[in-house]
Amino acid sequence: MASDVNMFSSEFPEWETIVQELSKVEGVILILGTSNSGKFLLARDIAKAALNYGETISIVDADPATAEIGPICCMATGRIQADQSSLTQIKPDEVCFAGNVSVSYNPALYVSQVNQLVNVSRSIPSKTVVIASSDFLRGANAVNLNQSLIETIRPDAILALQRNSEIDRITSLYHNVPEMKTINALVPFGLRTSINTQNRERQILQFNRLFDTSELFELPMEKLRFAGTWMGQAEMVPPHILKFISTTLGTSAYYAEIDNGHLGVVIGSAKPKENGLTSLQEQLRYKEITLTPAKQLKHLLVGLLDQHGRFLSVGKIDSIDFRARILRVRTALRTSSAVRILRFGTVQVDVKGKIVGALHLGDV
């Protein structure tokens, strides 16, 4: 077993001191950085250096847009091995379906899932390197999200990879916290400043790879539980109520549920008539009404989970037969027998692997 971390050499000389320092940190290391700042490269370097001490190293990939360890639109954790030169070679210990390439659509879910993955790695136990999402770092909401993440996972060290001082607003609160080592580092000059086009092309390739060998399964809705949606939380309304909703709105109503003062309705493509929603609220007196156009469900990503909530695969809704209560989902799974929970995502992906729609929290 090697005993000197200097036996490991980073491809970026300016990282040598940082790698040496962080490889000796016990516990959790959080890496923050914008797109193409080198977060994954640095995480690999820290892990490889720490392996020289014979430690077990878990990587938490908390960037669903890059998705080095798990599928795209997911976050995952796994233990890196000495013979693995890339994080893509890591076998996941746990995967969480985020449902979008951006964490800004559901910040609370993002923090909860990262915390879940960190707890999995802590239970091994192992030194843990967390690579945070890069798409939401600027602005007041981003500051709040990332500080909430820090307060939740309580890292032993925070590394901010910066080109200027874009992450200072997030990390400044923790500079004087004794139990958190805070380090600022410049992005190496050798890393290009923007590869947005390449990132989009990479996402398309990942989606295509995900569904290249997919099969279409019919899933009975009565055998499923649903998450991330109003659907499946209550019984379907009777046909005469559905007809009344359709008449009042002036558009087709395919499906509806009433749950604790909330009415959710799947409607057709026609826009509801003027004052139709107001009239419906006045007559039915529900506190909240959600109208979900059926076209928003087409090609919508879903996470397929087993009865214990463990991730099985990513799927894509092909169609829903509301009368027969059958969901048709395309997925790379070879069998759907273990699927018991569907977690709805917030992006629609077409047959070419391109994101063609993004929903907001509460749309479905």
Written description of the protein model:
With 364 residues, this protein is of the alpha/beta class. The protein folds into two domains: 5-194, P-loop containing nucleotide triphosphate hydrolases (Rossmann fold); 213-364, Pre-mRNA cleavage complex subunit Clp1, C-terminal domain (Elongation Factor Tu (Ef-tu), domain 3). The protein contains eight helices and 17 strands. It has a seven-stranded mixed beta sheet with strand order 4-3-2-5-1-6-7, sandwiched between helices. The longest helix is centred in the first third of the chain and has 16 residues, at 107-122. The chain starts with 15 loop residues before the first helix and ends in a 6-residue tail after the last strand. The model is unreliable at 1-7 (pLDDT under 50).
Element layout with pairings:
Blueprint: H1 16-22, E1 28-33, H2 39-51, E2 57-62, E3 74-79, E4 92-97, H3 107-122, E5 127-132, H4 140-153, E6 157-162, H5 168-171, E7 181-186, H6 196-211, E8 215-220, E9 225-227, H7 239-249, E10 253-259, E11 262-267, H8 276-284, E12 288-293, E13 300-305, E14 311-321, E15 326-331, E16 341-349, E17 355-358
Parallel strand pairs: 1-5, 1-6, 2-5, 6-7, 9-16, 11-12
Antiparallel strand pairs: 2-3, 3-4, 8-15, 10-11, 13-14, 13-16, 14-15, 16-17
Helix pairs in contact: 1-2, 3-4
